[in-house]
């Protein structure tokens, strides 16, 4: 079965929020991704509303329903606050096909580590049960190299998502072998425990093929930052030419 691609549209909302209007619209970007064949849409609404907000998630829910998987990421321990309902209430309201739980602290620039399963398991257990109750598949964000994946299965998780930031960094530095081996070992341990394996963070056209060759049977990758960076470069030439046609310079 080919690895499914879920496009993370956070970055479209970063650009939109920088001007305070409605453009670019994550919904329109998601529509284009789905029309191009993407298998899912990922969002990571953060309590500080820096990019995707709950209102986006409701609209994306309607767009994805019956078409592709909606994957909502977030810290299940982060409390609700004005403008942020909390991950579990948001999932209860929107019933995404998948929720990926990520242990992000407030104000982190981006996700940079997975759960400590031995420490976090008992707090996660009832939250995973609540998500399963509304029909979500539950995936836990996990560092490559993590042992004890039986714990993840025992508390009710369906999948893990391997945090691929260190792999991507090592790939760019030309020293990828140990990081890739860590990812492969963790994937095998998760699969042996009966869990599915997703992966994400800083995956790109430069490193994805090597990752998928080195780590077998990855069910889904979620990609945002690099995908939209690459899309800017891919579309820039044609866009400049269209403006020049409008100014009469060509
Ligand atoms: C969970 C994860 O891996 C992150 O990549 C995250 O979804 C990205 O979040 P930001 O777009 O806020 O950096
Ligand atoms: N779960 C990872 C994700 O959704 C996208 O991460 P990135 O490609 O924006 O680093």
TrEMBL record:
Q: Which residues form the active site?
A: 44, 73, 201
Instruction: Please provide the record's keywords in A-Z order.
Output: Cytoplasm, Pyridoxine biosynthesis, Transferase
Fill in the subunit field for this protein: Homooctamer; tetramer of dimers.
Q: What broad class of enzyme is this?
A: transferase
Location in the cell reads: Cytoplasm
Instruction: Give the reaction(s) catalysed.
Output: 3-amino-2-oxopropyl phosphate + 1-deoxy-D-xylulose 5-phosphate = pyridoxine 5'-phosphate + phosphate + 2 H2O + H(+)
- This one is known as Pyridoxine 5'-phosphate synthase
Q: Which GO terms describe its biological process?
A: pyridoxine biosynthetic process
| Molecular function terms from GO | pyridoxine 5'-phosphate synthase activity
EC number(s) from the headed UniProt entry: 2.6.99.2
State where 1-deoxy-D-xylulose 5-phosphate binds.
46, 51, 110
Pathway(s) per entry = Cofactor biosynthesis; pyridoxine 5'-phosphate biosynthesis; pyridoxine 5'-phosphate from D-erythrose 4-phosphate: step 5/5
Site Transition state stabilizer: which residues? 161
Q: What is the documented function of this protein?
A: Catalyzes the complicated ring closure reaction between the two acyclic compounds 1-deoxy-D-xylulose-5-phosphate (DXP) and 3-amino-2-oxopropyl phosphate (1-amino-acetone-3-phosphate or AAP) to form pyridoxine 5'-phosphate (PNP) and inorganic phosphate.
Keyword Cytoplasm attached: yes
Binding positions for 3-amino-2-oxopropyl phosphate?
8, 19, 202, 224-225
As for family, the record states:
Belongs to the PNP synthase family.
Instruction: Report the GO terms under cellular component.
Output: cytosol
Q: Which domain of life is it from?
A: Bacteria
């Amino acid at each position: 079965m080919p690895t499914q691609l879920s496009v993370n549209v956070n970055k479209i909302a970063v650009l939109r929020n920088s001007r305070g209007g409605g453009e670019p619209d994550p919904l329109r970007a998601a529509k284009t991704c789905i029309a191009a064949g993407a298998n899912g849409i990922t969002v990571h609404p953060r309590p500080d509303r820096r990019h995707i907000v709950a209102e986006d998630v409701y609209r994306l829910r309607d767009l994805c329903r019956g078409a592709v998987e909606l994957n909502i990421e977030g810290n299940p321990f982060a409390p609700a606050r004005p403008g942020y309902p909390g991950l579990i209430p948001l999932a209860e309201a929107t019933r995404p096909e998948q929720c990926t739980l990520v242990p992000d602290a407030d104000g982190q620039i981006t996700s940079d580590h997975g759960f400590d399963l031995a420490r976090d398991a008992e707090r996660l257990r009832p939250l995973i049960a609540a998500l399963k109750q509304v029909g979500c598949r539950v995936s836990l964000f996990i560092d490559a190299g993590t042992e004890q994946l039986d714990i993840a299965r025992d508390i009710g998780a369906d999948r893990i998502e391997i945090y691929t930031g260190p792999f991507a960094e090592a790939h760019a530095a030309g020293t990828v072998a140990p990081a890739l081996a860590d990812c492969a070992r963790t994937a095998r341990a998760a699969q042996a425990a009966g869990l599915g394996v997703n992966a994400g963070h800083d995956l790109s056209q430069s490193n994805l093929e090597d990752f998928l060759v080195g780590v077998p049977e990855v069910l889904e990758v979620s990609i945002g930052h690099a995908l939209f960076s690459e899309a800017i470069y891919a579309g820039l030439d044609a866009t400049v030419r269209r403006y020049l046609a409008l100014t009469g310079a060509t």
